[in-house]
Design goal:
Blueprint: E1 2-6, H1 8-19, E2 39-45, E3 48-56, E4 68-76, H2 85-99, E5 104-110, H3 114-119, E6 123-131, E7 135-143
Parallel strand pairs: 4-5
Antiparallel strand pairs: 1-2, 2-3, 3-4, 5-7, 6-7
């Protein structure tokens, strides 16, 4: 297993398969994908890209912390799920955020992913909400630096 930085376009095959299945490939491009502060990581096993995670400099008004980063597009190909790869990607993202002196990491998690993130120390805030054409989500967060 190897995790390394990748380009936004390299995330599309996994985003499409896991997060946007049956939708046009264009839906795999996220606003801010190519901003200078955005970072994408890919997890490879035997040269095959099997998981991805992206980190965006994005503030969420639910939180008062100044230095916030958002995780988006975390996905592991179905046949590799449940083997700890997703947790490794989240840890890589957290380490990246710690190195940037981030106060808080937040994201919108699909309803079925909430237990996964809770095991990694994330908490929900507020009620569930619907992202059209994607599904029910919860805002989740983790403070990684004490104020």
């Amino acid at each position: 297993m190897e995790i390394k930085k990748i380009n936004s376009i390299d995330t599309y095959p996994v985003r499409h398969e896991v997060l946007r299945k049956g939708k046009p490939i264009e839906t795999c491009q996220f606003k801010g994908d190519d901003d200078q502060n955005t970072v994408h990581f890919g997890l490879y096993q035997k040269e095959q890209l099997i998981g991805i995670i992206s980190i965006f400099k994005e503030k969420n008004e639910l939180f008062s912390e100044i230095n916030q980063l958002q995780i988006r597009g975390m996905a592991v190909l179905e046949e590799f799920q449940g083997k700890g790869f997703g947790a490794e990607l989240v840890k890589e993202a957290e380490n990246h955020c710690v190195n940037l002196n981030t106060d808080l990491i937040w994201f919108n998690a699909r309803e079925n992913a909430v237990p996964f993130y809770k095991k990694l120390g994330y908490a929900t805030i507020g009620d569930s909400f619907l992202i059209p054409d994607v599904g029910i989500h919860f805002a989740m967060y983790k403070k990684i630096r004490k104020n």
